[in-house]
Write a structure and sequence with these properties.
The complex is a heterodimer of chains A (284) and B (368). Chain A is an alpha/beta fold. Chain A has 2 domains: 2-97 and 185-283, 3-Layer(aba) Sandwich (Rossmann fold); 104-182, no CATH class. Chain A is built from 10 helices and 10 strands. In chain A, the strands form 2 sheets. In chain A, strands 6-7-8-3-9-10 form a 6-stranded mixed sheet, with helices on both faces. Chain A has a 4-stranded antiparallel sheet with strand order 2-1-4-5, covered by helices on one side. Chain B has helices spanning 3-34, 39-43, 48-76, 84-100, 106-125, 133-151, 157-160, 181-203, 206-224, 228-253, 264-277, 283-303, 307-321, 326-331, 338-348, 355-358. In chain B, helix 4 (84-100) runs antiparallel to helix 5 and helix 4 crosses helix 10. The longest helix of chain B is centred in the N-terminal third of the chain and has 32 residues, at 3-34. The two termini of chain B are 30 Å apart. Classes of the chains: A alpha/beta (284), B mainly alpha (368). Chains A and B meet through helix 3, helix 4 and helix 6 of A and helix 9, helix 10 and helix 15 of B. Bound molecules: adenosine-5'-diphosphate and magnesium ion. The site of adenosine-5'-diphosphate has 11 residues of chain A, from strand 2 and helix 2.
Chain lengths: 284, 368
């Protein structure tokens, strides 16, 4: 364990001893001849901030789809707190405590911002089939939704239709939708894509604060390397469907330097370039 | 919210409906006065013109219940069903057959209609996990087409009357649509507003909110933790039972059952009614049914047999100039609504739009 010297001891403790919340075992997904996810084995430990990086097409989103249940794996297993959920339906996973957000805006476009978040809270309550009670009776859902909107800074826009929000605000709202039911683990697929660059650190900072204060487990896909390096406990690098490297940020940075040294370029820089390219494309 | 405020809110919400119900309850007497008949004559079903308009309005009420049930399926839950006429026709035929061929009492007949409505909804639900959008429309169209053929078949003609339909259904005298029309009118009126009230409550309940979420984005709803399949079953069941009861009332009023109510044309009628009134608004379904029936009636009266051409023109005009229906256009007068519609149609017909088309990527700063 040569890494010990550069890892804060509290964090080391968490990384080594905290239980595995979410686990992928030999997870594979094939689209025809393409192996989008190729025998990925991954352990996400409780209360850690775990980032997944890799160039576009590496299979990060597909991996998320397998973990959250929107896709069935070709082979392999998904375990949540030791329980095999490989074939559990999507909605069951939400009830187990798995929250998920999307790279591409995925909301209820013609409902208000408040209703979008409120629906996220209501989903995990036990009142969904009370068809004879006015919705207003369940004030706790609305209160929780308002509280979360306050957190993500959308209080003043809570009654606007979600579709009319600028994209940056839609991303904040989506973060609200995943935070609101307080899941045990949050799978965040590029939550900042489509946001103005200067808004990104703020949003990521918010995620980090919540992760620390409410002791959540966060799995983040993100292209902004400065952000990833500063907030992550563990980083997994994916490339062409496979896990290329995994470790603490410093170790990954070292790995990148090794790649740089041998290959003249690194996946990190590839990804970084791609991210910058995307951002400038968006800006134009 | 303080209690006083809340009851004021309830009055604001339901005041309009309550007022309308009172007006409709008094309307037969108004018609009576217009033809010079005393309220007592109207009360005793002795005023001819009043009785006639009562009959017309009974038809409107029945159609309105039918339309609102389709609005729950299509407008609220976003399920494009082309088999909705089957819900209505099953109730209508079952009522006729049980009263006529089996001599069942009315209460037992209505109970059977409710039961059959539940089963019918379950039949439609069987395919829900597998098919979406236009495929669901085609499958439901298939169910209804089979029903339409079976009900007119030779084998069932002793009961269902073949392609002529069911004639001379015996109606209990206390409910006779000819002798006790005013009573029938009040029953139909109360039934309509009971259904309307129930639907308003349903849509405003946690369950109804989930149905709306399913219409908006089913995939997202599932990931949030909603087993959307069951909510769709609930919506279909509620709609099927209501439409079946509307069908029962139809049989009681007519009292014949014509096979036209089992055809695709009758589903299209439901679609037209909610398009006219405003899809997904509930209130619009009531308004749409009234417009649909009354336009048909007055055109037929004043232009004779060439009316269907004019009716077609009127509907085209409505779709062009009031594209979101009467209530829909009114409610959304401030919203850019065209895109909303395009999206919904795309969703129902399974056309995938690229996210860029849906929401132009902007990185506006919030106004500080
Ligand atoms: N539904 C799908 N059908 C076919 N190919 C897909 C599908 N989803 C993703 N892919 C392919 O799988 C690969 C991995 O994609 P993705 O998981 O989106 O990568 P990332 O999120 O890392 O950018 C890509 O080559 C992509 O084209
Ligand atoms: Mg991706």
């Amino acid at each position: 364990m040569r890494r010990i010297g550069i890892i804060p001891s509290g964090l080391l403790y968490r990384m080594m001893t905290s239980p595995v919340v979410l686990e992928a075992r030999g997870l594979r997904k094939e689209f025809g001849a393409l192996r989008a996810v190729n025998d990925v084995t991954l352990e996400i430990r409780a209360q850690t901030f775990h980032s997944i990086i890799g160039p576009n097409g590496a299979g990060k989103t597909t991996l998320f789809n397998l973990l959250s249940g929107t896709l069935e794996p070709t082979s392999g297993q998904v375990l949540f707190n030791g329980q095999d959920i490989t074939h559990a339906p999507v909605h069951r996973r939400a009830h187990l405590g798995l929250g998920r957000s999307y790279q591409i805006t995925n909301i209820f476009p013609n409902l208000t911002v408040l209703e979008n978040v409120r629906l996220a809270v209501q989903a995990l309550g036990s009142d969904n089939f009370k068809f004879w009670s006015a919705n207003a009776k369940f004030a706790r859902y609305t209160e929780r939704a308002r509280q979360v909107l306050e957190q993500v800074g959308l209080s003043d826009r809570s009654l606007r239709l979600a579709r009319t929000l600028p994209q940056g605000d839609q991303r904040k709202m989506e973060l609200g939708m995943i935070l609101a039911p307080a899941p045990e683990i949050l799978l965040l697929d590029e939550p900042t894509s489509g946001m103005a660059t200067e808004q990104i650190p703020e949003l990521i900072g918010l995620i980090q604060t919540i992760q620390r204060e409410s002791r959540k487990t966060v799995v983040l896909v993100e292209h902004n390397m400065d952000v990833v390096m500063s907030v992550s406990d563990t980083i997994t690098v994916m490339h062409q469907g496979s896990v290329l490297a995994e470790g603490a940020p410093a170790a990954i940075a070292a790995n990148v330097q090794v790649q740089d040294a041998y290959l003249g370029h690194s996946l990190w820089h590839d990804a970084l370039q791609q991210a910058q390219h995307e951002q400038s494309a968006r800006g134009s | 919210m303080p209690r006083a405020n809340r009851s004021a809110g309830i009055l604001r919400r339901h005041g309009g409906a309550l007022g309308l119900m009172i007006v409709l309850a008094l309307l037969p007497f108004l018609f009576g006065l217009l033809e010079g008949a005393s309220p007592l004559a109207v009360w005793n079903n002795q005023a001819g013109a009043s009785k006639f308009y009562e009959g017309l309005l009974i038809e409107v009420f029945i159609l309105a219940v039918y339309a609102i049930s389709y609005d729950l399926v299509l407008g609220i839950t976003g399920l494009l069903s082309f088999g909705h006429a089957m819900f209505f026709a099953l109730g209508a035929y079952l009522t006729g057959i049980l009263l006529k061929s089996f001599g069942l009492p009315l209460w037992a007949t209505l109970l059977a209609v409710v039961g059959a409505g539940v089963l019918n909804a379950l039949l439609f639900s069987v395919v829900l996990p597998r098919v979406k959008g236009i495929t669901f429309a085609l499958v439901t169209l298939g169910f209804a087409a089979v029903f339409n053929i079976v009900i007119q078949s030779h084998e069932l003609s002793d009961w269902a009357g073949g392609d002529v339909g069911l004639q001379n259904v015996p109606i209990p005298t206390w409910l006779s649509p000819s002798d006790e029309r005013l009573r029938f009118y009040f029953i139909a009126l109360v039934f309509l507003f009971a259904v309307y009230w129930f639907y308003q409550r349903f849509v405003d309940s946690p369950t109804g909110r989930v149905c709306v979420a399913i219409r908006e984005n089913e995939e997202r709803a599932r990931v949030l933790g909603y087993p959307t399949f069951y909510f769709k079953i609930v919506a279909l069941t509620v709609a099927s039972v209501t439409a079946g009861l509307a069908g029962a009332l139809h049989t009681l009023y007519q009292p014949i059952v014509s096979p036209t109510i089992a055809g695709l044309g009758f589903t299209v009628a439901a679609l037209l009614m909610i398009l006219i009134g405003g899809i997904g608004t509930l209130t619009g379904a009531l308004l749409g049914a009234a417009v649909y029936r009354l336009v048909d009636f007055f055109l037929l009266r004043f232009t004779g047999s060439s009316s269907s051409f004019l009716i077609g023109l009127i509907y085209i005009a409505i779709v062009l100039f009031v594209p979101y229906g009467i209530v829909g256009t009114w409610r959304l007068r401030n919203v850019e609504w065209r895109t909303v519609w395009q999206e919904r149609l795309a969703q129902w017909f399974g056309i995938k739009e690229s996210p860029q088309d849906l929401a132009p990527p902007t990185t506006e700063q919030p106004p500080d």
